[in-house]
Amino acid sequence: MAVQIRDVREQDLDAVLAVNNTAGPSIIPLEAQRLRHLFDTAEYFRVAEIEGVLHGFIIGFGSGAAHDSSNFLWFRHHYPEFFYIDRIVVDNETRGGGLGRILYADAESYAEPRYPQFATEVLMDELADKVLLFHGGLGFREVGQTGMDNAKLRVSMLMKPLYSYDWIRNTYGSKLPDVEWIQHPRAV
């Protein structure tokens, strides 16, 4: 099973929407207009393909983004700098096979030279223990809880330190080396 992680393309949006909206109760459904907005504004938006078929995606925003998610705004209120994973989704067929870890590893390689920590959240529903365990295994820890959608949903707010950030900043300052793997994966 060869996995390819690549930048999202406009022609992927229908497949991204289908993966998102069939992923189950722990993933909030998206409308096409909202997905288009995320496509247009995300700092980081990558997809995972296996044999040319899209099986997952991940969307991220830096702490300075003009992102309107209430969870993103919660992190902004509590932390000065972070890279926020707005959404990571793996389809039902592939879930549990390591694709989520691969997507997070790709996002971490992007974020670590730029931000001191990762931020994300988990809905506190019937699948929360499984999802919290997954994130805990990646190094995320709960830093708070909040309400979402007029407090009908509880959300566990998670952070993960990106340990190489300080060394990279001390070594290179704000001018990162001009090497392919570190360059912005997507022109916004």
Describe the structure.
The chain is α+β, with helices and mostly antiparallel strands and 188 residues long. The protein has one domain (3-175): Aminopeptidase (3-Layer(aba) Sandwich). The chain is built from 6 helices and 7 strands. A 7-stranded mixed β-sheet has the order 1-2-3-4-5-7-6, with helices on both faces. Helix 4 (99-111) links the parallel strand 4 and strand 5. Helix 1 (13-21) packs across helix 2. It is globular and about 45 Å long. The two termini are 31 Å apart. It comes from Aquilutibacter rugosus. GO terms for molecular function: acyltransferase activity. Residues 3-164 form the N-acetyltransferase domain.
Summed up:
It contains 6 helices and 7 strands. By secondary structure, it is an alpha+beta fold.
CATH topology: Aminopeptidase
What is the C-level CATH assignment?
Alpha Beta
Structural class: alpha+beta
This entry's quaternary arrangement is single chain
Give the tags:
seven-stranded mixed beta sheet, alpha+beta
Topology:
Elements (H helix, E strand, L loop, with lengths): L2 E5 L5 H9 L10 H10 L2 E7 L2 E10 L7 H9 L4 E8 L8 H13 L5 E7 L4 H10 L3 E8 L4 E9 L2 H9 L16
Parallel strand pairs: 4-5
Antiparallel strand pairs: 1-2, 2-3, 3-4, 5-7, 6-7
Helix pairs in contact: 1-2
